[in-house]
Amino acid sequence: MRNPHVLQRRIMLMVIALLVVAASGLVSPKQAAAATTMINNSNPAIVYQNMNPASPGRGLGDYQDDVHYATLDGAYFQYTFTGTGIEYITEKFSDQGQVDIYIDGVFKQTVDCYSLARQVQVSVYSISGLTSGTHTIKGVKKDGTYMLLDALRVTSDTAPVIKVAAVGDSITTGSYPAQLGSLLGSAYEVRAYGVGGTTMLKNGDHPYWDTYPFIDSGNWLPDIVIIMLGTNDSAAQNWQYKNEFLGDYTDMINHYKNLSSSPTVYVALSPEDYWPGNVVSSEVVPLQIQAANNTGSTILDVNTATKNMAHNFPDNIHPNEAGSTTIATVMYNGMKAAGLPALVNAYGKTEAEDFNSKSGSVQAEWSSEGSPNLGFIGTGDYVVYNHYNFGNGATKFDARIASDNTVGRIEIRLDSPTGTLAGTVYGVNTGSYQTYTTQQTTIASVTGIHNVYLVFTAGLNLNWFQFKQ
Ligand SMILES: [Ca+2]
Ligand SMILES: [Ca+2]
After folding, report:
1. So where are the chain's domains?
2. Which residues, if any, are the signal sequence (predicted)?
3. What is the pLDDT of residue 130?
4. Distance from the CA of 466 to the center of ligand 2, in angstroms?
5. CA 406/CA 427 separation, integer angstroms
């Protein structure tokens, strides 16, 4: 974490920062429709031809700190997975070239892994919308000095929808996120967005702000974000900027809170640092507490929980498995105490105006039926209702609608505005926009937990809806 190559990295990171700024406008938010699994390059199910593991512990921010590499053109990696999509995640650098990507034996695209500055954990290729089932990705080295594989991210169509982004440094690249995922259970997905050596300080020697996982963690539109950054900031070359720590921390909390998914942000106090003379507990943690208090964020007190257990921090900084268990447990207990997002019973009546988020001109207005309705609906507008628990399956949808024409439509979609279409409500002419009728629509069976998206065609008002088994 305390990197000796500070100067070299600082120059490199300045270049990355510029590239990130240039690229960030182009990154479109990923749709949140499905569960994903990271497959590390070390996974024995990956077939390699003329590729070898690089020395582990490269310390460059790789996923799980390792990669496989090839020097011969024509070398390849191949992986067979079950799901609907996959991403090829690797490093880009000046000694790398092009890679030909095949899906199910069909050439798809040549991706370019060349970059003047080193960039880690870059998703250089992704495909989605494959038919649910077994598929194979193959990446073949075309040119350049090296081809690397860091990880593959598989998308499957079983969809736990409460998304937890674990943001942090090398401590977050350890096992705590996976352990926290086990504690939270199957309705949650915890994704680790840790990058080794990174700082909260924008003027630190390796700011988290300048990494791809920082961008990706926001694009994922998480429901919950856990930030645990500060350990690397405490190093002398970074802590000279300590007066900026509170402001930078507050900025990061607000960055995540302002995402369209309006996540709950937790401030994890950095673990006890057993390095002699460090200032984590004495100086960093008090500022983390202040940042949490200034933003109304809940604190997860990892610092107190990891005191007096030097045996669980063998290199004085990084937790071993037992240390990661302590971190995951204190986080889980803190999140539970603060109230984890409740699941909504899909079979209760939902007032349409009680949406979690919306897009377009649609808004609540006075209705003739006491409870407000959604009106001012434009075509393409949508409203979102989070965390609906369908259990064994909904097959009908009642909608309380009104219109003076039959043009309006409501598409019931799952987990994104373009997600699975469960059914369509067709508008009926009730004589006026405030004369309501309950219209029942048969829908494709919906099971499990989903965010419900109602996507509109203009021409009707909606007062309430209710799924039926
Ligand atoms: Ca890796
Ligand atoms: Ca209503």
Report:
1. 31-157, 160-341, 344-468
2. 1-32
3. 87
4. 12
5. 5
Ligand nearest to the CA of 64: 1
pLDDT surpasses 80 at 8: no
Nearest listed ligand to the Cα of residue 353: 2
- Between the CA of 77 and the centroid of ligand 1 the distance, in Å, is 13
* Ligand in nearest proximity to the CA of 466: 2
E-strand ranges in 113-217 read 119-127, 133-141, 147-149, 151-156, 162-168, 188-194
Q: Rounded to the nearest 10 degrees, what angle do helices 285-295 and 245-257 cross at?
A: 40
Read off the pLDDT band of 159 (50, 70, 90): low
Give 208 Cα–ligand 2 centroid separation in angstroms.
44
- Please tell me the distance between residue 462's alpha carbon and the centre of ligand 2 in angstroms: 7
Tens-place pLDDT, residues 216-258: 999 998 989 999 999 999 999 999 999 999 999 999 999 999 9
Instruction: State which fold the 344-468 domain adopts.
Output: Jelly Rolls (2.60.120)
Q: At what angle do helices 212-219 and 245-257 cross, to 10 degrees?
A: 30
Give pTM, 2 decimals.
0.56
Among all bound ligands, the one having the nearest atom to the CA of 349 is 2
